[in-house]
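Ex. 9. Protein: 4-diphosphocytidyl-2-C-methyl-D-erythritol kinase.
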Amino acid sequence: MTVAPTLPGAVTVRVPAKVNLELRVGPRRSDGFHTLATVYQAVSLHDEVSVARWDEWQVVPAGTYADRIPTDGDNLAVRAARLVAERWAVDESLSIRIDKDIPVAGGMAGGSADAAAALVACEQLWGLGLDRDELAELAATLGSDVPFILSGGNAMGSGRGEQLAPVLARGTFHWVFAISDTGLSTPEVYAECDRLRERDDADVPDPRVSPELMAALRSGDPAALGAALHNDLEPAAFSLRPQLRELRDAGVEFGALGGVVSGSGPTVAFLTESHEASLDLSVSLAASDLCRDLRRAKGPVHGAHVVTSPRGD
Ligand code: C5P
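Predicted structure tokens for 4-diphosphocytidyl-2-C-methyl-D-erythritol kinase:
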């Protein structure tokens, strides 16, 4: 783990990862994106992004996955900060410290989380007075799931995933995430999904979230939610990484209430009955040698929020 000090005057924002409880992928649109119907849940794996005025743009990587953070203009936190600077004509450069505990390229919105965090942090540092709707609009230009990471909790996503609607939900859910050493590229997984559908001459209906999943969330019943987990990108992720199917099946055999590839993968998310059950499942999966890195988390949790600010609020 890399430890890097936070600069004086920095604004730090804490931001969660997400899992898609259900991800229905509709037809490919003319802009290349796919129409989605999805239900997101924010989970308690967090990045922290700190921004401070600096005499040039720089990224300071830190945390569990520090060595996997891009430090160039490809970094979504940098793109988000530059977007805000350009839009509000702020002629300043920033040092952006990213403390990364969300798996990279794992289907848990790690890059999107940093973009959401940078938006909130810059808004605060530069005192722009934007409301959540204005931030969400900017967020959507940076990535399909960035608006959800701003809001957190549970939400339904439509359009390309950026249009959010609240869902009725109760209870706290306990997850085990099986993390792979190497990520999967989101565009490649969507392209594989298209290829498999074309090969099978599959009918692609307009996507809809299932009533079973909504009922499971309303009742807070983990067994019902486990049975309703679904991801249309799963066949594509399995096709690109066949060992993920074995991992998913093993977790369910070891007692998970349900197992599903998270987003575009390769992280596999397992829902368990309780905190204790998540510990037991972690032990079984670790002993199976099917994956190297396991993380436990609970959901839902809050979206991006300021944790320290020179303004003291
Ligand atoms: O919006 P985001 O930058 O996260 O999307 C990354 C890539 O994932 C897109 O370039 C596209 O290939 C694919 N994608 C898609 N349909 C969506 C969301 C993402 O095809 N609704």
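Check your answer against this statement. Residues 172 and 299 are 6 Å apart (CA to CA).
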